[in-house]
Amino acid sequence: MFLKKLNHPDSTSTLVYKNEIPFHCPPKDEKTWNMHPKVFLSFSEEGKSKCPYCGANYQLDK
Fold first, then answer.
1. Which of 27, 51, 52, 62 is exposed most, by the fewest CB atoms within 10 A?
2. Which of 26, 42, 46 is nearest to 34 (CA)?
3. How far is 50 from 42, CA to CA, in rounded Å?
4. Which domain holds residue 43?
């Protein structure tokens, strides 16, 4: 699995590598893969995305 958690007290993000695009939440290897419907995410110009279902934050690796 290519996901890496970035820990910060205020906002935790999951690092997404470019070879994982197209990317969806929840990720297929996540323990909670069936916690909500799969939604494909797009990333902002800053490389950020947020899941509309669970609020998980994702950061695209540069």
1. 62
2. 26
3. 9
4. 4-60
In the prediction, which pLDDT does 10 show?
Answer: 43
Stated pTM of the model: 0.74
Element (H, E) at 48: strand 48-50
Closest CA to 20 of 60, 62, 50: 60
Q: What is the 3-state secondary structure (H, E, C) of the chain?
A: CCCEEECCCCCCEEEECHHHCCEEECCCCCCCCCCCCCEEECCCCCCEEECCCCCCEEEECC
pLDDT per residue, tens digit, the chain (62 aa), is 444 444 443 468 999 999 999 999 998 777 776 789 999 999 999 999 999 999 999 999 98
CA dist 55 and 19 (Å) reads: 23
